[in-house]
Design a protein that fits this description.
Order of helices and strands of chain A: EEEHEEHEHHHEHEHEEHH
Number of strands of chain A: 10
Distance between the termini of chain A: 41 Å
Strand content of chain B: under 5%
Mean pLDDT of chain B: 63
Radius of gyration of chain B: 22 Å
Oligomer: heterodimer
Strand content of chain A: 15-25%
Largest interface: A-B, 31 and 26 residues
Structural class of chain A: alpha/beta
Helix content of chain B: over 70%
Largest sheet of chain B: none
Order of helices and strands of chain B: HHHHHHHHHHHHHHHHHHH
Amino acid sequence: MKKSLQIADLFVARSENFCLKIPRLEVQPGEFLCVTGPNGSGKSTLMECLCGLLQPTKGSVQLGRTSLSRNVLATKAALGYVPDDEDWFIKELSAREYFALLKTVYWSAGVTLDMHARQAALASTLRFSAFDIPIQQLSHGNKKKVQIIAALMHKPNFIVVDEIRNGLDPLAIIATESLLRQEVDRGACVVAATHDLWWAERMADTVLMLIDGEVVIHKPIKSIRKKYRHLEKAFMEIVRGS
Amino acid sequence: MPLLIALGVALLGHDAAHPKRRSLVVLTLLVTAALGCGWALQKAIDTALLPPLDKTLVFFSCIAITSLSISLSIILSYAGFRPKDTVSKLLWYLPLRPLQRWLYLQAPIYLGGVITLITICPSLSWLARNMGISSFYCSIALIIGVVGAYGFFHACHTSSAALPVVCLGIIVAIELFGLQQFAHDPTSLTWKLVLTGIYACKNLGWLFCSRRAKTNYTSKRAAHMIGRQLPSTFWYLKKVLRASLLNASICLLLCLGIATYCWRLSLQDAEMVSTVASLIIASFVSDLRGLCRARSPAEITALRGTNYFVIHYLTTGILAGLTIAPLLIFLVVLDSPLFCYLQPLLGIAAGSLAGACVVPRPRDISGQCFAVLLSIVFVTLPPRFFSSLNPLSLLASEVGVLVAFIFVVEYLRNPFTWRKS
């Protein structure tokens, strides 16, 4: 049975001047949620909460029936994260070693999938071949490809991506889009933070817009189009009006 | 295991073109250097022409340094895998059991711990056997030092300021109790307790201060307040006063010195006090130099030309002298020979050299550690090889050698310093 991602009464106090408040959010299996908003609105904070990197001050993040804070291995193994930070690896290893390391960890957490084949398929789709160079010597785009392969290699049911297109070439962007669509079709919950509103409009089923840590829009893309014609127009009107 | 190896590569091969090769080379060098240091230390203590009590002092200093080194590795591990580091984040993200994750996060400690053990423990056990000291008590002292430092460090990081203060209070109280006992019964065992206590307090004091020193070595509130009160020409004093690490260290040393004096201990061995003063002053001077190195812009702008450079070293020496003043007063009470008053100069020179060689990062106490080690070597080794020389001439030549080294290191580091401004 596919499971949904749920947030209830989430409150994250990041500093004296900023806190993120999300009363309720649910991402259904097979749903693509785009999170957007101006700089400093709390997108990356939300992404970190969804991955368990940041403990909420109040409230909970549930993947299926399990709260993320309970650190159940199977739940954590069902999570894939592509961060915005380009150095989010053990960058001294080569991509091959890094993938091997991740496979060991996921296997010991109970993932039974053939991750070798999956890794090869993902690398071929993204046209990535620099397996034996230390990650720190890779280009920005190739580092992103390593992050994408690492996040999707174990077929996670919950995928969190933060500015996934940054640094990728057009071919890789198209390939990534198709990979994300495949994941959604497979029944995974995808949450993507982005500033690219046209991409969000093209990809998203639902849009969540944050301003100063608060939700200003949480609607299906269809209803946003109906009211504002485009997501960009909605963004401009709401942000300028706030 | 693969994850542990990966973390080792991340730690030792950081930012290298060939991380795996670099980490292997670094590990080999570290272990070789550790073995070499351990051997040198063993030889130095064993062959030094010292009275038995001084040997005991050096021995217990080694125990203190061991616990200090392990504390250092703990601090470095904190600096290595901080909660916001990418490796740390990755470990939080991956599906790992809590215990597994904790063990991986502590990986750098194993490295530091193993290297420290390789360095000192064989020498310590060998010496303990030779000196007739029970290895059981030795192990207990070592374990207490390490566990105390580790616990104190974690207490500092997990709670409010009250707990470390209470801990420090308890430690000082135990220290005073030891001193009181010593006043009534000046046996060598209590001396050991006193000396170990002094080092333990200093050690824990550093840990305590490392918590307070945060990332930039200075207290913002103090900096703001002092900045308004003192004119800009007193930049050096400002710098010293603003550094929480340093002024807490000064307070600790002064308290210990005054407490020692107030309890009116009937010390018989002035040379021992002088040796203690040398070791303390060495770490203190290295602290002062490290502080200035941590703020290079001030050094570059304020220390233009040779005069400024010399003045800076002189000020460091005078401040260090003031810090150990209570111990020097003690020497006056004991009516000590001139050599005892001058021996701390060796500490000042050793500390300055350590400060010149090691540029510590915030929260890094490797400079002090190196300074104390250097000081021990210079206090113990030369009398063995040049026993026919007058102690004062020997001291003068040792200081001369150290000053020459300082000159070379500083010249290589900052050639512009020697040009006329």
